Amino acid sequence: MTAPNERYLTIDALTDLIVEGEIDTVVLAFTDMQGRLQGKRLHGAYFLDVALDHGTEGCNYLLAVDVDMNTVGGYAISSWERGYGDMEFVPDWDTLRRLTHLPGTAMVQCDLVWLDHAPVLQSPRSVLTRQLERLDERGWQALAGTELEFILFDTTYEDAHRQRYHDLTPANQYNIDYSIIGTTRVEPLLRDIRNHMYAAGMDVEGAKGECNLGQHEIGFLYADALTTADNHSVYKTAAKEIASLHGKAITFMAKYNEREGNSCHIHLSLRGTDGSTVFWEDGARTPLYDHFIAGVLATMRELTLLYAPNINSYKRYAAGSFAPTAVAWGLDNRTCAVRLVGQGPSARMENRVPGGDVNPHLALAAMLAGGLHGIDQELALEDELVGNAYDADKPHVPATLREARDLFHESEVARTAFGDEVVDHYTNMADVELAAFESSVTDWERFRSFERM
């Protein structure tokens, strides 16, 4: 991998900026199981004197905690019995960038290795990298884009927490899908996000309103799959930070309320490592493309855990919601789980199952694993679904996290593609979430039962 464009930094350029006093903070970060950036902020002088050559380390529990950072049981890589040792952060210098929304700050994203330099297989970036290596062995590369929606509120994160996330005021009070005046009302924030992300090396396309109150989407140009996943994680973190600087709050949760959820449609195509088109030839889809789509569909249910990793993820899948329920494909059909769009070099699949809470590295890895399964097994592609997929007699996307967990745990495709260590690790992540939810008492239960039961 090389830096995607000249807006990224080189080591020499970063060194000069630190010496000149323009950069004083270097963030070393990695993507955790939940898709969040975790890591350290290093002082610029220390970075040059020590970390540049020797790196840094962090506790291995960072890949074995719940969303609240509680240490939990069941993980093979990290436990009290193992002593909660360290992992090494290995910077990928091709991801080095400025974060202009923060004073004097640069960031580099890291891979995780054990102290003997063996890769941490359960790291999301490692999971995706392994699937990209499988592609490279065949002479292919993956191009991808993620379309991430969020809901913006006219409140700070601190006040939202104090209000227990109830009765928050959305930034827009009506459906502003494609509305110019609706986006103008929050353009100072949207503009800041677009411009700061461009300065961070991302190729920004634009912003548009969405259906839910206060819902928006900022789009980015496709790139190679690893760059897209890395950028997704940086953008998601930075958007929250920039919103906070404006005194506002953003949520990417899959289903905030009973209206439209936050989706993360993922576009994916394969090319030859020489840039040649492999999904389209002589004015039509290639057999390779059909096998790939067939594999994604065949493995959709058993790999849904990597597309929908949380309890809340499954609230999106409702008829007539633009979130899919049927495991089916169609040509430019937004009611299907898989939508095929484009022709020639632009031919690509869109996976509409993931929500805004998805881990992009894991979701892309799952799509590639499913597609490669279809290619290797030469799976036949079923006929396209024409019409309303919500009414179709097709297999359904799993309805709950427990169903997805069980399918993933028993999946031979997942164990072959990712290895037992990875499958068991993310099965345990689901078990932790299920146990936490099942022991909680919700507002729904109180409203339902307090007086009337």
Structural overview:
The chain has 14 helices and 17 strands. With 453 residues, it is of the alpha+beta class. The strands form three sheets. Strands 7, 8, 9, 10, 11, 12, 15, 16 and 17 form a nine-stranded mixed beta sheet that branches. β13 and β14 form a beta hairpin.
In short:
Helices cover 34% and strands 20% of the residues. The chain is an alpha+beta fold and 453 residues long.
**Total individual domains:** 2
Structural class: alpha+beta
- The radius of gyration computed from the alpha-carbon positions, rounded to a whole number of angstroms, is 22 Å
The CATH topology of the largest domain, please?
Creatine Kinase, Chain A, domain 2
Largest sheet: 9 strands, mixed
The percentage helix is 25-40%
Note poorly predicted spans. none
Q: Can you tell me the CATH superfamily of the largest domain?
A: Glutamine synthetase/guanido kinase, catalytic domain
Measure the end-to-end span: 60 Å
Labels describing this entry:
six-stranded mixed sheet, single chain, Creatine Kinase, Chain A, domain 2, 453 residues, alpha+beta, Ubiquitin-like (UB roll), nine-stranded mixed sheet
Per-chain topology:
Layout (H helix, E strand, L loop, with lengths): L10 H9 L5 E7 L5 E7 H11 L1 E4 L26 E6 L5 E2 L6 E9 L10 H14 L2 E14 L3 H6 L17 H5 L2 H13 L4 E6 L5 E6 L2 E2 H21 L3 E3 L12 E9 L7 E2 L2 E2 L1 H12 L5 H4 L21 E3 L6 E4 L6 E4 L8 H17 L24 H9 L2 H7 L1 H19 L4 H7 L4
Parallel strand pairs: 1-6, 15-16
Antiparallel strand pairs: 1-2, 3-4, 4-6, 5-6, 7-9, 7-10, 7-11, 7-12, 8-9, 12-17, 13-14, 16-17
